[in-house]
Design brief:
mainly alpha, D-Maltodextrin-Binding Protein, domain 2, 2 domains, 23 helices, globular
Length: 540
């Protein structure tokens, strides 16, 4: 009886709270805000769709995984063979979910996911902006800076913008002292790329609130990442994606490594590279507003800057190739700090009683997009290639070759690949084989790496691969699909050549894709080409 009365009173209490909350709502204002966000998201979707023809080859590796997950509930590059070379599990899962829920292909789903990601990023930036400067100006500057940054735009389809969202969300939750949600955001960041562990560690170091706050963050983080890490370890043979181990064996592009990669991109794409780094000139002006904003703000932004610097140093020490999307970890903090510096310089105009000054301050939010307007004029609109990339062929050319393979090569045929695999595999639906799609080759590479490491690292690699097994081997290849450039373009064709396509890109110029029948030759898988020219690149 008593329990029933207590329950009734509890229910009545909740009912009163709900009624008070409903009565406190400004219905007209609420509808206006929803309508505004609908318009914003529609605009972001239209903007994201503009770049549909520019997705780089590595994005199609993610699309391949997402399509197999959506259609076959399998985790692998091919639906019937498991593999673990998708660097961003969360990006794959979200793409697969959008693919299942919305009409169109996985490529179409990428635009929807990107628009949703941008919308959430704007919402998180607005929370930070109001806390730091009392208005939305910083948020608008940072948002426009992010969504028009040429380097970030060049990685659409990969996990760059999702990673940026979770970095911004983590900063916002840190400032608001919402520790459980911060742990969840950092867990999702790590599931987007394992690099997120570094930011998690840095934020824990500067976290206010003592052990209790750190315990909440750590527990939420562990609950977020544990299910995937356990599944990946047992079912896929590695806690982290195989690519993070294999890339330790990758060689630089000639003399260029991650450490000096920007110099290479400045030579090939001078304006897009400069436009990607514009916030560096404004970053010093962020010191004053951060100092005035309080300890939490200083700690959060200091962690972001330290993250960018330490990440750059570690990747530079590893001497990995300078894939342009790796620099997302430096560009996102740079844009945030630069936008804060710009907002501080312009806050007097933004708060002025003079309408002209206020409109002039608002107009400055469009300045980061100026470079994109110029690039659109130079590259054509809509663009057909990413502003910054390192592919051997334009996306449309790869797509045409992939569709030809789908229509002319028998299903089940094995094609040994020497080149970029993503777009060709996605559109062909055929078995294109290299180190990143053949799990047995990946196992051999990892075993070779393990044998050459000091004992502690060797034991760690062995524990990571405790559940790893070989798959049944692929049959011998029926075809060799090769990408050639330089002097090889002038090589005479023989009876083994089935088809050839001349292709080109802003990165490399002219090259050729050659399809050969293995009935006329013996396959010998060669290492990457020598010399200073970039070689066909591996998946991320």
């Amino acid at each position: 009886m008593g329990c029933g009365i207590a329950a009734a009173r509890g229910t009545e209490g909740w009912a009163r709270r709900v009624r008070r909350w409903v009565s406190s709502l400004d219905a007209q204002g609420w509808v206006a805000r929803v309508a505004a966000w609908v318009v914003v998201l529609a605009g972001l979707l239209a903007y994201a769709s503009v770049f549909r023809q520019t997705y780089i080859d590595d994005a199609f590796i993610t699309f391949q995984y997402a399509r197999n997950l959506a259609e076959h509930l399998s985790w692998g590059f091919f639906p019937d063979r498991p593999s673990n070379t998708a660097t961003s599990p969360l990006n794959v899962v979200l793409l697969a979910a959008f693919d299942r829920a919305l009409p169109g292909s996985t490529v179409d789903a990428a635009a929807w996911l990107n628009a949703a990601t941008w919308g959430l990023t704007l919402a998180a930036l607005l929370r930070i902006s109001r806390r730091l400067l009392g208005g939305p100006h910083f948020a608008l500057l940072a948002f426009v800076g992010l969504v028009t940054n040429p380097l970030l735009i060049s990685g659409i389809g990969l996990e760059g913008y999702l990673y940026a969202l979770l970095m911004v969300a983590a900063a916002a939750l840190f400032l608001e002292r919402r520790w459980w949600w911060l742990g969840l955001a950092l867990g999702l960041l790590t599931l987007t790329r394992p690099d997120g562990l570094l930011l998690c560690g840095l934020l824990l170091l500067v976290l206010p609130g003592g052990l209790a706050a750190r315990g909440k963050v750590a527990l939420a983080f562990g609950l977020a990442v544990a299910p995937w890490f356990l599944y990946s370890w047992v079912a896929l043979g590695s806690i982290v994606p195989d690519t993070l181990v294999i890339k330790l064996e990758q060689t630089a592009w000639g003399p260029t490594t991650f450490l000096d990669g920007f110099s290479l991109y400045r030579q090939r794409f001078p304006l897009p590279t400069a436009a990607s780094l514009w916030p560096a000139a404004l970053a010093p002006f962020a010191v004053v507003p951060l100092w005035r904003a309080g300890r939490e703000a200083r700690s959060a932004f200091a962690a972001l800057v330290a993250y960018a610097a330490i990440h750059y140093a570690v990747y530079g020490a590893l001497a990995v190739p300078p894939y342009h999307w790796y620099y997302t970890h430096q560009v996102v903090p740079l844009v945030l700090v630069g936008a804060l510096g710009a907002a501080y310089l312009l806050q007097g105009m933004a708060r002025s009683a003079d309408r002209v000054d206020r409109w002039a301050a608002v107009a400055t939010t469009a300045l980061p997009a100026a470079a994109m307007v110029y690039l659109g004029y130079g590259l054509g609109w809509p663009p057909r290639q990413a502003p910054i990339h390192s592919n051997w062929a334009a996306p449309g050319e790869y797509r045409s070759v992939g569709l030809w393979l789908h229509d002319n090569i028998e299903p089940g045929a094995i094609l040994e690949l020497r080149g970029e695999i993503g777009t060709l595999a996605y559109y062909s639906g055929r078995y294109l084989i290299d180190e990143f799609t053949d799990r047995n080759r990946a196992n051999a590479t990892i075993a070779e790496l393990e044998a050459g490491q000091p004992r502690p690292m060797s034991l760690l690699l062995r524990a990571n691969g405790a559940w790893r097994d070989d798959e049944p081997p692929f049959p011998p290849p029926t075809y060799l699909l090769d990408v050639v450039s330089g002097e090889a373009l002038n090589a005479p064709s023989g009876p083994d050549v089935v088809a050839a396509w001349d292709v080109s890109s802003r990165w490399l110029g002219r090259s050729r894709i050659v399809l050969r029948s293995t009935a006329f030759l013996s396959i010998a898988v060669e290492p990457d080409g020598a010399g200073g020219a970039p070689t066909p690149r591996a998946p991320p």
